[in-house]
Each structure stands twice: as C-alpha cells, then as structure tokens.
Amino acid sequence: MPLSYLIALFIGLPIVELAVLLKVHEVFHFWPTFLLVILTGVLGLTLVKQQGIAIIQKIQREMSIGNVPAPQMIDGVMILVAGALLVTPGLITDVSGFLLLIPFVREKIRFWLKKKIEEKIRSGYVQVNVKRET
User: Taking residues 28-51, what's their average pLDDT?
Assistant: First the structure.
C-alpha cells in the first residue's frame, strides 16, 4: 500500500469519523451519542472475544486431524482487526468491525484475497518457492 494511501487513511478517517459523530450529536445530542459509541465498543468486544475463542478451537481441531487451518487463521486475523476497529471510537470503524464479525463477509474477503494473491503470483509480482522434502 503506497504511503499516500496510509496518510489519507490515518488523517482522513478520523476527520470523517468526527464529522459523522458531530452529525449524530446534532440529531441525538451528547449522551445518546456517547452511549452509542460505548455500547458498540462493549458489544463488539464481547462478540470478538466469543468469535476469537471459537476460531482458536477450530484451528486446534483442524491441526489435530492434520489439516492446515489456513481459512481459520485468516478468519482469526480478520477477527483481530475487527477488535481493533471496534475499540477505535467512531461509527464508521464500528460498522467495519461488525462487518468483519459476520462469517459470510469474512468468506467473501478470503475469496477476494485468494484471487488477488493468485493474480500477483501469475503476473510474477510474487514468487513462491516450494521446498520438497526427500
């Protein structure tokens, strides 16, 4: 990801989050807006904890039968990102975090990531070296 995208993300997103919170504040006033931010954070972290424990158990099950738990590990990373988004104050990050907690959404993201990686490998941008054991 180019530096300009990161700068836009880290500067632009907080500005947009603040604008959204100010609009919500205009409609609902301070306490409901404040409670909404707190509630989404607490609810989100509860869901992240539950799903995190469940994904760890799935990874352990897959490994115990000798399978590589790649999809579950990717889900684990997305659940971790969801947790980070949910503890970040703001409604846009909360919505993004909650979306990552939906298994169907994670499945679509995994599919998209797989396609992007395959494209990079086919184009030669990413090289994969396979070491075979003898």
Answer: 91
Distance CA 9, CA 77 (A): 20
Are the C-beta atoms of 45 and 31 separated by less than 8 Å?
A: no
Neighbours of 91 (CB within 10 A): 17
Domain that holds residue 39: 3-123
| Residue tagged 């970040």 (tokens) | 88
The strand ranges marked E within the chain are: none
Is there a contact between 19 and 57 (Cβ–Cβ < 8 Å)? no
pLDDT tens digit sequence for 42-81: 999 899 999 999 999 999 999 999 888 888 999 999 999 9
Asked whether residue 16 is domain-assigned, the answer is: yes
**Residue with token string 């115990």:** 64
- Per-residue pLDDT band for 131 (boundaries 50, 70, 90) equals confident
Q: Give the Cα separation of 21 and 132 in Å (integer).
A: 55
Residue 129 domain-assigned (yes or no): no
